[in-house]
TrEMBL record:
GO cellular component, one term: plasma membrane
UniProt entry keywords in alphabetical sequence: Cell membrane, Membrane, Transmembrane, Transmembrane helix
UniProt name for this protein: Predicted membrane protein
Membrane topology classification: Multi-pass membrane protein
Pfam families in the cross-refs: T2SSF (PF00482)
Domain Type II secretion system protein GspF residue range list: 113-236
Top-level taxon: Archaea
Coiled coil (UniProt feature): none
InterPro entries: T2SS_GspF_dom, T2SS_GspF_sf
Segments crossing the lipid bilayer: 6-29, 73-93, 221-248, 268-288, 295-320
Annotated source species: Methanopyrus kandleri (strain AV19 / DSM 6324 / JCM 9639 / NBRC 100938)
Localization per record: Cell membrane
Gene3D superfamilies linked to this entry: Type II secretion system (T2SS), domain F (1.20.81.30)
Amino acid sequence: MLRNIGPVIRLIVLILYPLALPLARILVIRMSPEYLRRMDYLLQVSNIDVPYEIYLSASLIYVLIGMSISGPLIPKLGSTAFLLAVMPLYLLIHPRIVQSLRIKDIEENLPDALRQMVEELRAGLSIFETIRNVAESDYGELSREFRIVVRDMDTGKTFEEAILDMAERVNSELLTRAVRLTVRISMSGGALADVLEAVENDIREVRRIELERKAITTMPCLALALGGLISGLPVGVSIGAVIGVAMMERMGPTYAMLPMYLQAKDPLASYPLVLGLLSGMAIGIIRYGNMKRGLVFGLPLGAAAAGVYLAIVSVMPSFLAAGGM
């Protein structure tokens, strides 16, 4: 699904290529070659054939453009203008979403692929033949990576060098653990089939523990997600009710302060936005032990929470005014 929108995102990024190029030259100096190579590969598998420094620069420019355009339009368009500021943020998190989905697919297929390799090695096939068979099998993103391993070994790399490069490309903790165990035990002289079987058992145990952790943390994460989503509800109901009462009152102190309430209505959307972001980061800590991974949840939660707030503030005054007539 995400690969299908890759060409569209590429076109959106290339529109700002002339503006993004100077900023990209600054960013590329501050990023390590290994990180750039990994992110370039991630964009490539997402069907976005653009250097990562250009992609990042264009995304940042789109965010700035969205914020500068939406600011003056918020008093007139409300939540619609707010979306102009939020939507470009997706460009920044799209590679991370692709990466997390790829890692999940690879880690799910890894134990079965290792089992196939163990059985074929014990049947007398060479390591190169077993890797080629896995590359030609239906293991999703893992088969894609093994095709690259086959290509690397065709060009002269050893088995250990090729799989270490694969671990660096994918950047999965579970795959890296498996590769390091394989290389360490293999270089110490162990039979490769026995090595891979031990690694397979280790991975299955790790995945079992991860599934247990996910089962335990599902309810707290759902509670955090729900809390972040409705964080704007109390404020939205309160400010909406005040505006509605002022509209009903027509005269009096509340009505006299109506312009102030209206001016504060849209800026207050930052409150649920921040709470949504914090809820997402808390989910990342509880679920993965990593606050940064929570940004994948935090940005959509923050945008949705701000949208809930703005929707309530827009609807409630009219609802109260209609009920008071």
